[in-house]
Amino acid sequence: MFKIKIKLIYCALIISVINVILYNIPLFKFVYNNINLSTFNGILLITSFVIIAIMLNLFVFYIGLYLLRLVGKWIIVLFFNINALCIYFINNYGVIIDRSMIGNILNTNYAETSSFLSFSLILYLFFIGVIPSVLIYNIKYEKIKFKPFIIHNSLILLFILLISYINSPNWLWIDKNSKKVGSLIMPWSYVVNTCRFYHKKNKENKKQKLLPNAKILNNTKSVCVVVIGESARSANFSLYGYNKKTNPLLSKIKNLHIYKAESSATYTTAGVKAILDYEESNDLNEILPNYLYRNGVDVIWRTTNWGEPTVNIKNYQDKNELAKLCNDSKCSYDEILLHNLQDVILKSKKDKILIVLHTSTSHGPVYYKKYPPEFENFKPVCESVELSKCTNQELINAYDNTILYTDYILANLVKKLKGLNDYNTSMIYVSDHGESLGENNLYMHGIPLSIAPKEQFEIPFIVWTSNDSIQLKNNKMLSQYHVFHSVLDFLDVESVIYDENMSIFKK
Fold first, then answer.
1. Which of 105, 186, 249, 435 could form a disulfide with 411 if both were Cys (CB 3.0 to 4.6 A apart)?
2. Cα separation, 273 vs 280, whole angstroms
3. Where in 192-274 does DSSP place strands (E)?
4. Beta pairing class for 424-431 and 139-142
């Protein structure tokens, strides 16, 4: 194949310009939409962004190609293809490539990853990933001596500092928008945030920190079921005032208590950790199921999802294990979590039982695949993984059908618990986070909590109890950390870490 031979600095400059043109349009679009171009400072800012982006890339690519030679070129090829994928997700889902998003990516599984596959993604990868990579790979550059290499880089760095100084009137704007800006600079957004993610991970304690021993106070037979919702936002529950009947079954159930709540994060791993933790902390504390299991409570965990901290109990069943026990067509959906649940409870030899059901019902982008056909009540629905290509109504209809199906699962669970006449039973349903459905051109979740829209953190917190004598508090707002203490309270488990103020139950 034809190869072009040029000086190394020109090669690095070409790579830098291609990188800026193809992969930093969302960055410049954000700057353009958030400055006043009618002022000198506004023009200076966007001009400086373009120049500094080119020069910074030139500085790094120049050093990389000089030191690493062919390996450096392959690294740039890798960057270009990852850049193409990032731009696809930024343009189609409004994602922000920060440290938490890197954690989501590194902790995802094949099923979730494959759900994003589309023809458009392949086109993005081919046209702005593969083709530029082939061009770059076929550029040959001449070797350069050390002295001119140092001079070139010194001049480049001096020029960057000069432009930064000239742009000093806009430093306050840059600081204010640093999170958004930093997440859009390709490839450095994911390079830097991957390093930040692993740095934070290495600082965390590797094993769960054991909590103080607990004591079961009585032998009253009690079952508490904690249902962890997935991507469920309270705004689309008719129980919270939504104008479509997405909760026709739950709305008829007595002793149902509805609380306003906010999640502690906008992504699954952190949201689930908060639901299972006794306090807000960066430490890896012993989570609720492990804690209760170690202290004599029978714990059952069933999941069709992923992303929870390590669960150290005997009775843990994922979707594949549950599928072996279930032959019904509905076992392809989340109601598989309820399969033979009453029998499992009745076979338990313990008086106190905690059941955790980790659902995946409202996880996008393929909402229409998350419920059986008979629950497609709201039509037409979005059947594309490229959510921005659907009409807003189609997208909301598909999502609302997942909430309708959630309503059925929870009502069915309550029915099963009502049949356990010898037990005090309760259900606590709380979602890991919310979901964006096109508001402000954002889709799904994962925006940093500090700048996230309310759709991504306002979540349902729904409680049901079988015993009329069990009273609940009238809290105006709950957090996910209320779950831990409420479960201890309901199961009559005494512990020094129990906080009465964090329980939803009245003494």
1. 249
2. 9
3. 215-216, 222-229, 256-262
4. unpaired
pLDDT band, residue 3 (cuts 50/70/90)? low
Which residue carries 């997935």 as its tokens?
230
DSSP string, 38-102: TSHHHHHHHHHHHHHHHHHHHHHHHHHHHHHTHHHHHHHHHHHHHHHHHHHHHHHH----SHHHH
Structure tokens at 382: 């979005």
Would you give the distance in Å from CA 459 to the centre of its chain? 14
pLDDT at 468: 79
Name the residue with tokens 């390709």: 186
Contact between 357 and 225 under an 8 Å Cβ cutoff? The reply is yes
pLDDT band with cut points at 50, 70 and 90 for residue 203: low
Cβ atoms of 248 and 412 within 8 Å: the answer is no
Strands (DSSP E) found in 321-467: 352-358, 424-431, 436-437, 443-444, 458-465
Q: Is the pLDDT of residue 202 over 80?
A: no
Q: Helix 40-68 and helix 25-33: axis angle, to 10°?
A: 160
State the angle between helix axes of 70-93 and 25-33 in degrees (0 to 180), rounded to the nearest 10.
Answer: 50
Distance in angstroms (rounded) separating the CA atoms of residues 250 and 3: 68
| Segment 86-114 mean pLDDT | 79
Per-residue pLDDT band at 2 (split at 50, 70, 90): low
In whole numbers, what is the pLDDT of the chain averaged over residues?
90
Q: Please tell me the pTM assigned to this model.
A: 0.84
Tell me what the mean pLDDT of segment 27-34 comes to: 85
Rounded to the nearest 10°, the torsion over CA 356, 403, 328, 419 is: 60
Of 431, 23, 369, 419, the closest CA to residue 191 belongs to: 23
- Residue that the structure tokens 């480049």 belong to: 156
Q: Are 55 and 156 in contact (CB under 8 A)?
A: yes
Of 63, 9, 53, 61, nearest in space to 30 by CA: 53
CA-CA-CA-CA torsion sign (148, 76, 46, 161) = negative
> What count of other Cβ atoms lies within 10 Å of the Cβ of residue 498?
16
Residue 83 has, within 13 A of its CA and on its CB side, a CA count of 29
**338/416 Cα distance (integer angstroms):** 9
Highest mean pLDDT: which of 67-71, 187-191, 354-358, 421-425? 354-358
Residue 1, pLDDT > 60, answer no
H or E element at residue 139: strand 139-142
| Cα–Cα distance, 223 to 349 (Å, whole number) | 12
Q: Which residue has 């001079």 as its token pair? A: 151
